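Hi all, long-time lurker, first post. I run a small reading group and we've been trying to get comfortable going from sequence to structure in the token notation. Rather than ask abstract questions, I figured I'd post a concrete chain and ask someone more experienced to write out its structure so we can walk through it together at our next meeting. Sequence below, copied exactly:
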Amino acid sequence: MKKIVALVLALMMVLSLTASFAEEEVVTLKVSSIWSAETEANRAPFLKTLEEFEAAYPNIKLEVEWFEANAWKETGETLALSDSLPDVFYWNAGGVLWNLVGSGDILALNDYLTDDIMARMEPGLLVDMTFDGKVYQLPYTKAASMLYCNTELFDKYGVKIPETWDELIAAVKTFREAGVTPMALGGGDQWPTNMYTDIIALRFAGDEACRAAYYKTEGATFMTQDWIDGMAAFKQLIDLGAFPEDAASLTRDESEVPYFAGEIPMYVHGQWFSGSLSPEMQQKVVAVKFPAVGKGYDNQYMGGAAEGFCVSSYTEHPDEAFIAAQFFAENLSKNGYIAGAGLPAWKYDFSGIEGLNPVMAQIKEATSTADSMLLWGNTALTGEDATLIGDTVYDVLTGEITPEQWCEDMETIFE
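-- Answer (accepted) --
Happy to help. Here is the structure in token form:
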């Protein structure tokens, strides 16, 4: 009898220790996201991702706080001042990311990035999340500037979808002669104009030179013939009447109305525009890379990974925080693409899924083999520099300054 009692007591002790050990193994992470509004395209995909994470990692509990994007940026910057950022959080890439990296608030992830993880990620996306060889962020989506062509109008007027600059100029002239405005542009909002000038500059100057200028690295300059030629090419489009006569006063939304109505054949914009196309327009529009200019940079893209998930450098649970950040990035990539919220930054077989946006699928296919992807100038630059590139490009659009003067004005960011 005593042996039975002793055995029971021993078993109870083991169970007690096991329970205690299990309790100690449960880790709670604080997470911040920006999709607080029900209308946010990524809210539902992220909620699904959270459910998938909780099922996959029951020992990691999440305390998620939701913000509006601008509110979180201000809150995050404030929290960083007191080393109080959450364990895992959403943040923008490029210059905005560098501000927190420079202040030591973000954990470098290199030690966690196995070959298997890297192989599952789309190529070229960590460039704007990497500083001095250290990776500080994982992307969940990628952006890309594309040339959206309405095939119905191209067929009607016998115009070839342009693959080279000469073909683009020929298309612009043919459409103008037919009384058709060739390209949509809402210059009143400034940044849509940057969509044009950035990709043209990339074609003429290349990723290395553009990246150096936008990140203000030593020796960078806008005072080269390639930069001047790029802005002169944009001026050529203006002079040929490629854009609406009132492009400088149109907002982005206003400028897109005639495109949606099938009246304008071409538009340079980000991948998100494909999500605004009606099912009918999705069958008429193709998204292609911007034409080549003969410099060898025709497979480089503006866009890239502009946002993702970070781990704070002072988290008490770095291993679990990385697991969460990586899971969020990879699975929100999948869920977001299926929902039509954005391009995937991670590889996944979507072949068995019906109802995907065909134009978004074209962009996904085109960018999957990109040589490089570079953040837009007004995203890579920060503060007054970002404002300057918007103001000066607008001045070129309105004829206030010449391409050479634009380069001179932009050169002042290095002073």
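A couple of things your group might point at:
The first helix runs from residue 2 to 25.
The CA atoms of residues 48 and 335 lie 7 Å apart.
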